[in-house]
Amino acid sequence: MPAEFHKLQISGIVQETHDTRSYILDVPKTLREEFRYRAGQFLTFEIPWKGMLLRRCYSLSSAPETDPRPKVTVKRVDDGRVSNWFNDELEVGDTIAVQPPEGRFVLRTDEGDHGVVLFGAGSGVTPVIAILKSALRSTERDVKLVYANRDEDSIIFKDELDLWLAEFPERLEVVHHLDRESGFMSVADIQEHLRGWEEAEFFVCGPTEYMDIVEEAFKVAGIDPAQTKFERFNSLPDPDRRDESADIVPEQADDEIPESFTIVLEGEAHTVPYEKGATLLDAAVKAGHKPPSSCEDGYCGCCMALLKSGSVSMACHDALEPSDIERGWILACQSRPSSHEQLEIDFDAQY
Ligand SMILES: Cc1cc2nc3c(=O)[nH]c(=O)nc-3n(C[C@H](O)[C@H](O)[C@H](O)COP(=O)(O)OP(=O)(O)OC[C@H]3O[C@@H](n4cnc5c(N)ncnc54)[C@H](O)[C@@H]3O)c2cc1C
Ligand code: FES
Question: With a threshold of 0.70, does the pTM exceed it?
Answer without folding.
Answer: yes
